[in-house]
Amino acid sequence: MEYRRIIPCLDVKHGRLVKGVNFVDLKDVGDPAENAAAYSEAGADELVFLDITATLENRKTLLDAVKRTVDRISVPLTVGGGINSCQAIEELLALGVSKVSMNTAAVRDPDLVKRAAQQFGSEKITVAIDTAQNADLPSGFEVMVSGGTQGAGRDAVEWAKQVEQLGAGAILPTSMDTDGMQTGYDIPMTRAIADAVSVPVIASGGAGALEHLYEAIVEAHADAVLVASIAHFGTFSIRQMKEYLAGRGLPVRL
Question: For the whole model, what pTM was predicted?
Answer without folding.
Answer: 0.95
